[in-house]
Amino acid sequence: MSADPASSARIIDIAEHVDVHEFMFDQGITDGLPVVPPTRERVDRMLAASPDHWNDPSAEIAKLPPNYGPLTVEKAAINAVMAGCAPSCFPTVLASIEAAADPRFPLHGSIATTAGLAPLMLVNGPVREQIGMNWGLNALGQGNRANSTLGRALRLMLRNVGGAVPGEIEQAIQGGGHKWTLSYAEDEDTSPWEPFHVEHGWNPEDSVVSLMATTGGPRVCIDQTSRNARALTGSIAMAFQQVVKPRGQVSPTMFVISPEHADVYRADGWTKDNIREAIMEFTALPLRDRLASPTLGGGINEYAPQQYGLTEEQLDLPLSKVAHPSFIQITVAGSHAGKWTSIYQGIFGDGDPTKPPPGPFVPPAARVRS
Fold this sequence. Notes:
Layout: H1 20-27, H2 40-48, E1 60-64, E2 69-72, H3 73-83, H4 90-100, H5 107-111, E3 118-124, H6 127-130, H7 145-160, E4 183-185, H8 196-199, E5 208-214, E6 219-222, H9 229-241, E7 249-250, E8 253-257, H10 259-268, H11 272-282, E9 285-286, H12 304-308, H13 312-315, E10 318-319, E11 328-332, E12 340-344, E13 348-349, E14 365-367
Parallel strand pairs: 3-4, 8-11
Antiparallel strand pairs: 1-2, 3-5, 5-14, 6-12, 7-13, 8-12, 9-10
Helix pairs in contact: 2-3, 3-7, 4-7, 9-11
């Protein structure tokens, strides 16, 4: 699909005496940090790395909320340059946009909410190594160009094309570092389980970008003493119980397990489903104990029993931290120098407790094409 002329990028000439970085700050097109000036030469180098599927710079990839501005391949390249991406990363950037545009991803809701949501980006497959991503020491921190700039590029597009400007349409109460960037690669070799993308139906040789909406994090569970999988999962469940509303529920959440914690699960032969089942068990509370009260908030609406006509028997039924085991998504990343797991939580869920659990959650994803 070709873009209309109004969606085309334009070149702006500035006087030699004007500081280009200050100019871009003044234009309101940065995320609060300096960006790389998107010169014609830099943008052309980025476009030269486009996969065949997106070889037309004027092709429209998606309309980005909240203003539903048309994002062309060229505008994606401009923002990827500004984010500091290497041209080799551009196919992965484009895949992240395709995943974000998937109707299953709450893109508009992630922006137009006070909850401070932002996409957590996970990369699997051969492209991880091809673009030099980090899945080891400090994998979810600073210092690696690909990890840092991939998530930043997506956020700059949401700001500069979609109109997600803090203080205007974007109204995050506090925000966090995840609003700048949050992208990492999975340690597929260390993991005792099949890679994340294979678990969700992709081929091992595929390179895939998966997204989840997170309100921030991590909530870190440090457990250096548990010697079996059940005890370790009990520690992780206790940490998970306290995220967002302590007695409320939460939407799909990513658990990033360190290699040394993964070794505990490997030794006991635990699958991801074993972990999910145990977390559901350990976090189960009678519904009445998940209700907020005048003296103890942080739970499901205290008026839910009257609102939904709940009986005493229903109030005694167990309710876990998540409504469905598939809301517990699991990957492996980090160094081999410590035993902890990081939890990147979704948004709180205060829906109708009388409804049956939802179907399995499948993270929105897209294949990185060459």
